[in-house]
Amino acid sequence: MNLFAAAAIDSPWVWEARPDVWLLMITICGAYVWSITNLRQRLPDAPPRVPLSVKVRFFIGLAMLWVAVDWPMDRLGDDFLFSAHMVQFVMVTMVAVPFLIAGTPTWLQEEVLFPVLAVVHSLTRPVISLLTFQVVLIGTHLPWVVELYASNSFVHFGLHTLWVLAAGLFWLPILGEPPLLAAPLGPLGKVVYLIAATVPPTVPAAFLTWTTRPLYGTYADAPRVSSLNAVEDLNLAGAIMKLGGGFILWGFIAWIFLSWGLSETNRSRRPSGELVATMSTSSEGTPS
C-alpha cells in the first residue's frame, strides 16, 4: 500500500495527495527542459534545436506515466482491482516509455546513458532486451511478488522503476538509433522482434483470462468497488494484458511496414525524378 493511502483504506475515490509522485514528475520535466535548452548549448558541437513534435511526444509520455502512477489509478491498482494494476502496467511499459524515448533526442539519450553506455550496448541486443522484458512482465505478476508489491511502499516504487527500465531496454531496439545501439535492427528485424514479443505474454494472459479462482489475496479480500468479483477482475486483467499490449505491438508492426513501404517507394522513384529534373534544367539552359 502506498504511504499516503492509509487514511482511505475502504475507498479509492477519496482524493489523496501524492507529493512523492508530483516531485518526481516535476523533476523529470525540469531536467528535460534544462537539457534541451541549456545543456544543448553547452555541448562542444551544439545539436540542432529539438523539434516541437519531439517535445510533444516526450510530454505525452510523461503525462501518461503521471496518470499511471498517481491517484486514482495507482490507488485502484494497489489495493482494489488487479485489472487496474494491469492497466498501469500497459500504460507505463507500452505507452509512456515509447513516447518518452521517441521524445528524447539521440544526443540527450547518449548524454544520460554515457556512464553505462557499454552496458546499454549489451542489454539492448534484441534477444537480451526481449528476454529481459518478458522475464520482468511474468516475474512481477507472480502472486507472491504482487502481494509484496501491494503491501510494501519501497517494493511498490522499485517495481515501477523496474517496469520503466525493462520497457526502455525493450523499446530502444525499435525506437533508438546508432551510436546508442551496438546492433541496430532493420525494418524486417524490427517486425520479427515485435512479433516475437507478442508470444510470451499469451501464457500468463490466457491463465488470467480463464482462471476460475482468485490468485491474489490482496485483490480477493479487497472491498468491491465495481460490479466485478475477484475472479472476473482477474479475467479482465488477462484480456487487458493480451489485447491491450497486443494491439499496441501490432500497431507498431503496421507502422514499420507502412514506413518501410513508403521508403522503398520513394527510393524507387528517386532516379526517374532526378532524371526529369536534369532534363528540365538542360532544356531551360538551351537557347531557342
Topology:
Blueprint: H1 19-42, H2 52-69, H3 73-79, H4 82-102, H5 106-113, H6 117-123, H7 126-139, H8 143-151, H9 153-175, H10 187-197, H11 202-210, H12 217-221, H13 230-284
Helix pairs in contact: 1-2, 2-4, 3-4, 4-9, 4-13, 7-9, 8-9, 10-13, 11-13
- Beta-strand proportion: under 5%
Mean of pLDDT = 87
3D shape: globular
Overall number of structural domains? 1
Low-confidence stretches: 1-8, 272-288
Number of strands: 0
Helix content: over 70%
Number of helices: 13
Largest sheet: none
Structural class by secondary-structure content: mainly alpha
**N-to-C CA distance:** 85 Å
Rounded radius of gyration (Å): 23 Å
Provide the succession of SSEs. Answer: HHHHHHHHHHHHH
Structural account:
The chain is mostly helical and 288 residues long. The chain contains 13 helices and no strands. It has one domain (6-267). Helix 3 (73-79) packs across helix 4, helix 7 (126-139) packs antiparallel against helix 9 and helix 10 runs antiparallel to helix 13 (230-284). It is globular and about 60 Å long.
